Amino acid sequence: MSSTPIASKVIPKASRVKIDPAQIEYTSDKQKNAVQALIDEFTISPELLKDIKNNFMEGMQKGLKKDGETLAMITSYVMGRLDGSEVGSYLALDVGGTNLRVVSVHLTGGGEISTRQTKYRIDEKLKVGDAKALFDFMAVCVDNFLDEHQIVVRGDTQIELGFTFSFPVLQTSINRGTLISWTKGFNAAGMVGKDPVAYLQDAFNRRHIPVRVAALVNDTVGTLLAHAYHHPDTVMGVILGTGCNGAYIEQISNIEKWKGDAAAKEMVINMEFGAFDKERTILPLTMFDNKMDRKSVNPNKQILEKMIAGMYLGEITRNVLLNLIDRRLLFEGHISPDLNQMWTFETAYMSTIEADASPTLHATRKILESTLSFPATSLNDRQIVKLVVELVGKRAARLSAAALAGILEHTGSWKQKSAIGIDGSLFEYYPSFDTDIMDGLEEVFGPVVRKNISIGLAQDGSGVGAALCALLAAKHSTSVV
Ligand code: ADP
Ligand code: MG
């Protein structure tokens, strides 16, 4: 079994230069009308944004009442907050969707953290194969990491590990839970209803790897904890990566379905908000979304996630471009064999195209002609491609804003200084995702929100957060108080 590390890339954020649809020299009225129709279909008006936010809040209330609702509102067993004084060394295993990261986290107190990490790519075959093989691969990556970093375990001691397993899991304790469903292209056989911690611990034990899975953590919860370590006023952890989801701090008295210990006042809730609008009553799905959804491994599920997250935005864009091509309104009706394949238009290309400020749209040309093997493209082609990218990207950011606004209104935290930590490559690299989110929040709450709410990149928050959770779990054997 191979576990080759991949290097992490650094792409700087660039300023955003938007296409003005009025400035495009259209080749025909038909093309102009088609572009206008796309603008109408993909634009989330301020009114719709507020309606979605209200509907989202109703979904939150339902999920807090009972299990099995569209927003699962999972109780994380993480109670209370961190103060930054914690010390110790822990491991984290972060299985997010695209990559697997092993992180060793050293907490030196005073809010200081040093980390070492190695990233491994998860093979597509492992995602949809035998569950045991997938968990064995995880154990092998951890074992290799211990070797690589010469982390030696003496005697009978075990290293405590926080396991960030970012799929919907019904948690039954800080290190126990059952998988509700796979998402993000995973579908390993026989795992639904099973405990991922048991599978991972078993894989460690069979290989005599001295690691104990001390905490099972969703990446949103880890992100919240990691951001809180530096910013004690953190109220929410959000993921905008392969998938999308959020966690926030709830008053236990508001969690009607909670049957456990009521001594603590607060608990972190993993919302699983990517599942929002399973009923398809509010989100403005287009034919391009539906086409992608039908071809996904989980049709009709994770509807909001599929309009927001990194795994899907490129494919939605590809569907729009194909439609324009088929109507002979783009590239003179020619298609490149590359673009003809599903999932070939990567969301990362969208970030580059968004940031393309050159008058000839040089970077866009490079992606179309060099990467996707289109023959010579015209400026008109490239402008329309960039406009489509902007529409799909902005819709994603505004839908994220609707969800975040729902949480901020539900908790009332928009009224005071509060921090939101966001992790994920989409948020990190997509130009102006943060400012588009903030603009959406301002439409809901007014200018005060810019003063009160800070949105920050919680880079690798899910790894560090899992280690923090392992630390807290080790301290308080069953729950984190
Ligand atoms: P995970 O969700 O597995 O933890 P990441 O946070 O790295 O992993 O997110 C991976 C997702 O981010 C992929 O779906 C990919 O399409 C998207 N992505 C990667 N690079 C970029 C980029 N430069 N711009 C926008 N999206 C990106
Ligand atoms: Mg992640």
UniProtKB/TrEMBL annotation:
Keywords: ATP-binding, Glycolysis, Kinase, Nucleotide-binding, Transferase. Residues 236-471 form the Hexokinase C-terminal domain. InterPro entries: ATPase_NBD, Hexokinase, Hexokinase_BS, Hexokinase_C, Hexokinase_N. It comes from the Eukaryota. It comes from Mortierella alpina. SUPFAM superfamilies: Actin-like ATPase domain. Residues 35-229 form the Hexokinase N-terminal domain. GO terms for cellular component: cytosol; mitochondrion. This is Phosphotransferase. Pathway: Carbohydrate degradation; glycolysis; D-glyceraldehyde 3-phosphate and glycerone phosphate from D-glucose: step 1/4.
